[in-house]
């Protein structure tokens, strides 16, 4: 058997894990989920989610991958033979996520192209985004006129997949180098935006909306669902990605400290993005005489409307805009290829196909599937599929991972192993979290949100469209079972 690939060093692994975690989830998804959930209402659920599920599960996933030295399906199988399907299910979720993640990258490529003319279109950033770039139609079943797709988005999508192919086909060592640039640059740029944003008139109101806790909203299960979903999405949990990345570390590498570094860095960057966006929203509210919650639409377009506005208010706005969209792209690309890597690692471990060919096929297939989201109804589909995949599927995968390790294998032994090789020791709280706390919370959230969902369809979309979202989630689950039941190269 050939030796498993390796990161160059401990810091290469930590950087790659941060590169995977920090992505569009922090700068694009986090602000709009916060905005949709009512700002401060999100704050407490998010922190609770980070502490009860985010960090403990990250430790768990690192341990799973490192111990088994294999991708998600084989790693889970090692805890108990009946859990391989959970790993495949996670990979299916990652596969679906890449279909639309690459489309959001494509929006960024478009914005990079238009960045030079920022002063011309930024006063109308909203129309620019919806009408010019996305060419959005009236609803999920309205694909507009022939050719039904927004060409600029299709082109950007092609560029995204070509870049992923070129970076990934050379293997993980190169990934370690790419992230050395893609991680620090964004922090500096975001800092500039935060400082500028906070000096704008009205920014205080925006920040108040972002940070003032709303205790009454804690009763709403959908906010909790969004918070857990966002933590999973942002920390790359439940997609099998971290398991694969950890499998490229030697068996005795530190786990606990690395998990804390990665999750806190990720969370910090989300907050920075929040400060940048909400201070600017405060300014927009102030200049238009509207309340903060009514300034822009609450969907996935938020970042693409607010950042350009913020940039246009700065000296040398166009140049900063170019840098900013390069930053979004660099942030997104390492997350995107980490998802692909996770899926490929799973397939490679089981059947041993050549990685280069697999990556090529993957990119072509994902490009084609992405065309749905690049269509004129694409924004609606993105919103719907994202809701079912990141909010329901991920939480379920997380739940089953906790059950697999907490109930079907020896979790105390797992903690001992982790403690033996980590910089600092995990207390018993970790076992309690994985075994009881996280599963109970996840079941409660999933149950009550599902109940609400049946009363009130998500975002008022037509039920046929939501049914397609559910069908896609279910097929990921079935595909998970199917892959697990196929014979691998080492017949078990
Ligand atoms: N965490 C990444 C982000 O925030 C997304 C991601 C999910 C990456 C799953 C890898 C695996 O953008």
Can you characterise this structure?
The protein is mainly α and 492 residues long. It has one domain: Amino acid/polyamine transporter I (Up-down Bundle), CATH 1.20.1740. The chain is 74% helix and 0% strand. The protein is globular and about 60 Å long. The mean pLDDT is 87. The structure holds phenylalanine. Phenylalanine binds next to helix 1, helix 2, helix 12 and helix 16.
Order of helices and strands: HHHHHHHHHHHHHHHHHHHHH
Which strand-content bin applies to the residues? under 5%
The count of helical stretches stands at 21
The rounded Rg comes to 21 Å
Describe the main β-sheet briefly. none
Taken together, the total number of domains comes to 1
How many beta-strand runs?
Answer: 0
The average pLDDT score comes to 87
Q: Which structural category fits the helices and strands? A: mainly alpha
CATH architecture label name: Up-down Bundle
